[in-house]
Amino acid sequence: MNKRLLTKPACMIAMMIVTCLLLAACGQSTAPTASSSTATKTETGADSSTNTAADRTIDTAKGKITIPAHPQRIVSTYYHGTLIALGLKPVAANKEWWMGSPFLKEQEQGIEDIGTPTSIEKVVSLNPDLIVINDFDVKSYDQFSQIAPTLYVPYTAYNSPKEEIQMFGKLLGREQQAQAWLTEYDEAARAGREKIKNVVKPGETAVLVNVREKDISILGDNYGRGGYALYDGLQLKPLDNVKKEVIDSGKQILKIQMENLPEYLNADHIFICFNDGTTDAQKNAVLSSAIWNSLPAVKSGQVYDLPYDTFSYYDPKSIVGQIGLLADMIVDKNKTK
User: Fold this and answer.
1) Last residue of some domain: 104, 136, 157?
2) CA 163, CA 51: separation in Å to the nearest integer?
3) What separation in angstroms does the CA of 256 have from each of 222, 263, 276?
4) 8-18, pLDDT tens digit by residue?
5) What is the mean pLDDT of the chain?
6) For residue 75, what is the enclosing H or E element?
């Protein structure tokens, strides 16, 4: 009996000590976006943040993951242009599909190619501290995540380039750089609209059409080929049916037949882009047809040929550049009128 009475207080004291230690540990683990390890790394890039945390925990489509607060060796199978706009130059990216924008020539120098499809062996050899992927490589997520923390961002995570860069800015702690791009975009858009204001009258409509070999498609404002620069930046007006069926519906691409051209291309201005691989015969099948030449914009000389190797890119820096190019094209075509 006496033995139990003597040991009970000691047990209570021990339990209190353990409880205090657990509470202290829990208090440390709930710190937002920081890892549980002691932070020792400091910012080495352009970010002026005073946060010295070595890691940050973020919510992703694959759940919570812990990534470096200031990654130094990013491998990006997609979104490399967005990372560049945020001041984060990847060590490697997909060259065949996504690199090559004329607006990123200088920034892409030194970036290694990870191949198409992505070479897991190449990624391993680069010793990345962060891997960024989209839907094209999500099937290999488990393999990538064994190499380094892997940030998967699906196409459905954003609805516009503005949303995209703000999202990445928040995920990677680069909000200031994201805001800087938004400011750059707004300034380029205002300059473009000012340049064309004496050429494009209020309410004039435009349509963006893409030809890929034998396929003809109407594109929206969030599918590349200059659509965002055209509709959001320069604020040319889409046709009502295009706005409803292609843009507002979220489809962003609508395949049509030749006989549908008058229905969907009855605009004041036509912007057309031919994909790589489309032959001259396939181009002529469209451009030499009677139905094409009956269109109002064709008759009035308001057709603009968009080079695929310039307008296929859809990263933030390329979009800003496309606004200026489109404005120049519109002004130049109408100089003699």
Assistant:
1) 157
2) 25
3) 18, 10, 19
4) 333 333 333 33
5) 86
6) strand 74-76
**Distance separating alpha carbons of residues 131 and 128, to the nearest angstrom:** 7
Query: What is the H or E stretch that residue 122 is in?
Result: helix 120-125
DSSP state of 45: S
Among 109, 140, 157, the domain-final residue is: 157
d(CA 331, CA 225) in angstroms, rounded, equals 19
Dihedral Cα 287, 289, 293, 298, nearest 10 deg: -20
Q: Are 134 and 77 spatial neighbours (Cβ–Cβ below 8 Å)?
A: yes
CB-neighbour burial class of residue 21 (10 A; exposed 0-12, middle 13-18, buried 19+): exposed
Q: Label residue 96 by pLDDT band (50, 70, 90).
A: confident
Whether 148 and 232 share a structural domain:
no
pLDDT at 336: 65
Give the range of the structural domain holding residue 59, as residue numbers without chain letter: 55-157
